[in-house]
């Protein structure tokens, strides 16, 4: 590979779909315009696929799975085949980070630190895991010996959102491919361009035709992928409302499904936690990606004895955040992804006022940013748990601070949600914090910090989803179990 190829930036204009290992024309006449959230101007375009295009992609994936070499390769062979795929992505991390910032307004520092390098890290992790993962095991059994096989589920339809597009793609794409599945990927219409970096990587790596197929489409065409009888499993990341529809359609066909949906995650600050020390550590996870993250810690629960101190600390931290051009490295809060998203957030801010909550910081649009879909970081105090702003996923830079009386009350409020995705507990008494964490009905929590552990299962309770991603559990979600009962009293060696 030449140095020129390594530094070449991804194209901003794409005019073909990636199906069956080739770039092919779409049957649609229109293109998806990619609009910069910071300038409100078009920065690129991608083809819009039709249901017929989706069907072509499924056929290519189906042929690759039923007749191609990919599912029949050993896990180690698949891991080796994906090495040049990963190296292609690794060489283009800065260019990919820049592209994602242009597409959806992610601050460039966040894009450089997470948006572009984490997908490579995830692929590396799953490649290593696949080599040691127990795809076969023997058990003594109760009535006789059995061999347990873990086999690829088949053709996977993957639907990903726009907020951390390549990360949320690779979270499931890597384990699906390493399990031996073939994939039809439908990126979000706001961020179709970064998905083409994967198409370029697949061609560079020489992946067999049909193993990966990419069909950008508007939301209305996502249903064609979910409904298609040639798809064995759907992996969906997005809103709980859409996830409910996806689950219903999959249920009609007994189609396997993994859903990673919304969140309204609590950060519980016990009375022995100093707000002036905790809040600066919490804030990056409370308004990450301008609040456009399902795991953002947007419900801050503060002990009543420290409530005003906590409100003041959160308000001061929010007002100090740098809001501006996402291409500028000091920027901490960029624009929202679309004008419709800004309208949604502003509606919630108005709702909070109407319900009697008090805005301590923000609540409007930055006066110095007339262009772009910006909303000021906003903090609500005097919030009750039943308020709309405390219950709904706003997906914007809006925080609510809710008082509690004791540990039981903190747990009650934390669990007073239709969501259960993530959360945090803050206290110098780690044993006490752990006891509270055990009682919160959510898929992951962190004590005295917030982090995502990619080697451990991640997913949600309640309306935050079905199934788990990351870790060995994420690989298992793309496998079916088969039991072969072996004859009693006979030694049997493994085959293959």
TrEMBL record:
<keyword id="KW-0560">Oxidoreductase</keyword>
<dbReference type="InterPro" id="IPR016163">
    <property type="entry name" value="Ald_DH_C"/>
</dbReference>
<dbReference type="Pfam" id="PF00171">
    <property type="entry name" value="Aldedh"/>
</dbReference>
<feature type="active site">
    <location>
        <position position="260"/>
    </location>
</feature>
<comment type="similarity">
    <text>Belongs to the aldehyde dehydrogenase family.</text>
</comment>
<dbReference type="InterPro" id="IPR016162">
    <property type="entry name" value="Ald_DH_N"/>
</dbReference>
<dbReference type="InterPro" id="IPR029510">
    <property type="entry name" value="Ald_DH_CS_GLU"/>
</dbReference>
<dbReference type="GO" id="GO:0016620">
    <property type="term" value="F:oxidoreductase activity, acting on the aldehyde or oxo group of donors, NAD or NADP as acceptor"/>
</dbReference>
<dbReference type="InterPro" id="IPR015590">
    <property type="entry name" value="Aldehyde_DH_dom"/>
</dbReference>
<dbReference type="InterPro" id="IPR016161">
    <property type="entry name" value="Ald_DH/histidinol_DH"/>
</dbReference>
<feature type="domain" description="Aldehyde dehydrogenase">
    <location>
        <begin position="24"/>
        <end position="484"/>
    </location>
</feature>
<protein>
    <submittedName>
        <fullName>Acyl-CoA reductase-like NAD-dependent aldehyde dehydrogenase</fullName>
    </submittedName>
</protein>
């Amino acid at each position: 590979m030449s140095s020129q190829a390594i530094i070449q930036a991804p194209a901003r204009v794409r005019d073909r779909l990636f199906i069956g290992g080739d770039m092919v024309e779409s049957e649609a006449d229109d293109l998806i315009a990619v609009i910069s959230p910071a300038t409100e101007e078009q920065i690129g375009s991608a083809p819009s696929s039709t249901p017929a295009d989706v069907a072509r992609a499924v056929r290519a994936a189906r042929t690759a799975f039923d007749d191609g070499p990919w599912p029949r390769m050993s896990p180690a062979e698949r891991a080796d085949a994906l090495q040049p795929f990963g190296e292609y992505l690794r060489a283009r991390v800065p260019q990919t980070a820049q592209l994602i910032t242009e597409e959806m307004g992610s601050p460039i520092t966040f894009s450089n630190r997470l948006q572009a390098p984490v997908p490579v890290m995830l692929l590396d992790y799953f490649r290593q895991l696949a080599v040691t993962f127990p795809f076969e095991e023997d058990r003594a059994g109760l009535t006789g010996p059995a061999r347990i096989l873990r086999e690829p589920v088949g053709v996977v339809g993957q639907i990903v959102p726009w907020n951390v597009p390549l990360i949320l793609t690779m979270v499931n794409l890597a384990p699906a491919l390493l399990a031996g599945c073939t994939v039809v990927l439908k990126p979000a219409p706001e961020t179709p361009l970064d998905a083409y970096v994967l198409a370029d990587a697949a061609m560079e790596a020489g992946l067999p035709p049909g193993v990966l197929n990419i069909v950008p489409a508007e939301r209305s065409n996502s249903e064609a992928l979910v409904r298609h009888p040639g798809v064995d499993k759907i992996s969906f990341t997005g809103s709980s409302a859409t996830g409910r529809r996806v689950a219903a359609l999959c249920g009609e066909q007994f189609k396997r499904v993994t859903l990673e949906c919304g969140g309204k995650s609590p950060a519980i600050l016990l009375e022995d936690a100093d707000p002036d020390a905790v809040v600066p550590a919490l804030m990056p996870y409370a308004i990450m990606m301008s609040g456009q993250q399902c795991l953002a810690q947007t419900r801050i629960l503060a002990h009543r004895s420290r409530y005003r101190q906590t409100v003041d600390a959160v308000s001061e931290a929010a007002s100090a955040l740098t809001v501006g051009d996402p291409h500028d490295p000091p920027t901490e809060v960029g624009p929202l992804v679309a004008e419709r998203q800004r309208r949604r957030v502003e509606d919630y801010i108005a709702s909070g006022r109407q319900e009697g909550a008090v805005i301590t910081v923000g609540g409007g649009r930055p006066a110095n940013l007339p262009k772009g879909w910006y909303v000021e970081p906003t903090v609500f105090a005097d919030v009750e748990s039943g308020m709309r702003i405390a219950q709904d996923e706003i997906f914007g830079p809006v925080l609510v601070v809710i008082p509690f009386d004791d540990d039981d009350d903190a747990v009650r409020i934390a669990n007073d949600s239709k969501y259960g995705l993530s959360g945090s507990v803050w206290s110098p008494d780690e044993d006490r914090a752990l006891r509270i964490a055990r009682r919160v009905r959510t898929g992951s929590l962190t004590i005295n910090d917030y982090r995502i552990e990619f080697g451990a299962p991640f997913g949600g309770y309640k309306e935050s989803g079905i199934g788990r991603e990351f870790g060995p559990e994420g690989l298992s979600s793309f496998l079916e179990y088969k039991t072969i009962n072996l004859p009693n009293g006979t030694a049997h060696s493994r085959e293959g």
